[in-house]
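Re: weekly structure request thread

Next one in the queue (302 aa):
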Amino acid sequence: MSALRGHALQRAARAAARQPGVLLLALLLATLACCVLLAALLSAPTAHATWHKLQAMRSAEATVFLMPGSSAGEIKTALERAQAQAFVQSVRHVTREAALAELAGRSSGGAGALPELKSNPLPDALAIRFAASATPAQVDAAVAALGALPKVDQVHFDGSWHQRLSALLGAAILIGATLALAAMLAIGLALVAAVRLLTVGDRAEVEVMRLVGATDAVIVRPYAYTGAGLLLLAALAAAGILALGWRLMQPVVAGLPGIEFVWSVAAPPAAVVGGFTVAAAAAGWVLGMLAGQSALSKGAAI
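Done, posted below.
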């Protein structure tokens, strides 16, 4: 077995020496594709966490403004009926006095910044928080129901920002998945094409091996070694490129506000990178073997 393995490795080395340009081109293409595939793999947990953050942020507040002059009893009734609405998690009464004090506190002059006001023009309001489990359509229906309550003047709610962010994240995930699939296809095509080109120079040696009774499994073993070695090097190169890019990006993005929402500050997990490298080598072995068997079965260039 060791003799056969050594002979297969020698054949793989001779084939690589005869056509180094083919292997270098295949290695370059496979490295670029592995960069895309590994980046998508490492970005998946961050995308998943960001999606859950967006879902948690869906429970934003709506403000229900009551009609001016509403009595304490009418305000209490409106509060109770708002609390009874579907998908409403909590209701908080904001008095007109508290609203005016907050408005004055936000102004540059503090509490004395509004001396021209003879009376408080602000109405009582209800701060509504919706359940995080509610869908956008359910929230919109709840907002419409709140607006139809007695003594309600208007309802202010802007959930479009959440829908836009969710749509952008969904598009990014779809693009990432598409690029990952395209990268896997590119890796397979590059490796298969390289192996089939390598078989051109093996025609005479393969005929001799067949004459002495070598099986197809023995004949195609060098191509399996070539495929495994090619994708192993491509995966290691891709991991190095991404690690370097991650280090260079850290100081650039560290000072951006809220960047932790979409950018993982932790280093890429070594276990993920190691598993990707091992999987790439195994995939290269299988693809190299299949490409060699295909060339033998069709008599392509052999």
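The CA atoms of residues 83 and 122 lie 22 Å apart. DSSP finds nine helices and four strands in the chain.
Next request, please.
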